[in-house]
């Protein structure tokens, strides 16, 4: 990227968004960037980090209102402390609440969108407005935000539960992930969405591509839908390996795999 902006508070964040729009500078918001592969040439223009500037979390009865910049881990810890159940299956997903809502992050049979009642979002030059979850076209790993919209806060409806049981359920989710996924290694999580009938990992496994390497990028031996960064992979290595996998699965299984991660930025010269 050309400029990285980590604004200290909400007012400064919004002023930066307005300034960039007025000056015609391309910009995008990222949470922790855990679902993006940034090409070697970087992102054109400015990247705004949704962090502490869009923070805070509170409850009103069974509704939780969370700033988009807080981490999903922080939200889950809050829910456990408050005895609010529903998000336990999301334990271990890195990134922010905003990133989770935009990607409709999920695992273990649940997705954040199932609990979403509304978001508060704004667009450059416009004031903040609530958008009901039903208007967001929420689907599998997908939320249709209005173009240019930046998520400020999200509201989630949860159920009352016992804090200790909620913590235990979160721990079980984490344990299962550590057994089945290369959690200790650098990756962007699952590369491809699961096609309707067969998980992407199983399709890739059947082609025998586990362990296949391009430069420092390797198809994980533990979970074939993960590409791990071993020995300094470049984004270009990862992109080339994605194409190797996609081509083999197309040729052998007749399935066109769709990316779950987002590839952004300019190619390296
Ligand atoms: C090891 C690992 C495991 C993972 N496991 C899972 C899993 O089990 N399930 C799953 O669904 N995903 C998983 N992921 C993917 C990723 O963690 C999730 O998609 C996560 O919710 C993304 O959050 P983020 O803050 O990093 O978003 P980012 O990657 O920063 O952004 C994702 C998208 O949202 C947009 N965005 C982010 N914040 C805002 C905002 N405030 N307003 C508007 N747009 C915004 C960005 O522009 C981008 O388009 C995993 C990733 C890794 C690395």
Q: Hey, roughly how much beta strand do the residues contain? A: 15-25%
Unique ligands:
flavin-adenine dinucleotide
Radius of gyration: 19 Å
- Count the DSSP helices: 6
Provide the succession of SSEs.
EHEEEEEHEHEEEEEEHEHEEEHE
Shape: globular
Give unreliable regions as ranges: none
SSE topology:
Layout: E1 3-5, H1 10-22, E2 27-30, E3 36-38, E4 46-49, E5 57-60, E6 63-67, H2 72-82, E7 84-85, H3 97-102, E8 106-107, E9 110-111, E10 116-122, E11 129-132, E12 150-157, E13 159-160, H4 163-180, E14 187-190, H5 200-206, E15 213-214, E16 217-219, E17 226-229, H6 235-253, E18 262-264
Parallel strand pairs: 1-4, 2-4, 3-18
Antiparallel strand pairs: 5-6, 6-12, 7-13, 8-9, 10-11, 10-12, 14-17, 15-16, 16-17
Helix pairs in contact: 2-4
The chain binds flavin-adenine dinucleotide (FAD).
Flavin-adenine dinucleotide is lined by residues 28-36, 50, 68, 93-96, 98-100, 102-103, 105-107, 141, 150-151, 187-189, 262.
């Amino acid at each position: 990227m050309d400029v990285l902006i980590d604004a200290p508070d909400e007012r400064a964040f919004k002023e930066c968004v307005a300034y960039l729009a007025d000056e015609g500078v391309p910009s995008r918001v990222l949470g922790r960037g855990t679902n993006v592969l940034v090409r070697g040439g970087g992102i054109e223009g400015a990247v705004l980090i949704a962090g502490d500037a869009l923070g805070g979390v509170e409850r009103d009865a069974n509704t939780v209102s969370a700033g988009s910049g807080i981490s999903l881990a922080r939200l889950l810890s809050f829910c456990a402390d408050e005895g609010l159940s529903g998000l336990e299956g999301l334990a271990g997903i890195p990134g922010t609440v905003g990133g989770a809502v935009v990607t409709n992050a999920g695992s273990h049979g649940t997705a954040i969108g199932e609990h979403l009642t509304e978001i508060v979002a704004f667009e450059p030059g416009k004031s903040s407005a609530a958008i009901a979850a039903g208007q967001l076209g929420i689907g599998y790993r997908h939320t249709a935000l209005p173009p240019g919209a930046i998520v400020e806060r999200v509201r989630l409806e949860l159920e009352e539960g016992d804090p200790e049981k909620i913590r235990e359920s979160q721990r079980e989710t984490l344990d299962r992930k550590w057994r089945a996924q290369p959690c200790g290694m650098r990756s962007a999580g699952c590369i491809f969405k699961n096609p309707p009938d067969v998980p992407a990992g199983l399709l890739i496994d059947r082609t025998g591509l586990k362990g296949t390497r391009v430069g420092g990028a390797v198809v994980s031996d533990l979970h074939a839908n993960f590409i791990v960064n071993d020995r300094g992979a470049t984004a270009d290595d990862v992109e080339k390996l994605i194409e190797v996998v996609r081509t083999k699965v197309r040729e052998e299984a007749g399935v066109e795999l769709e990316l779950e991660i987002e590839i952004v930025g300019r190619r390296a010269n």
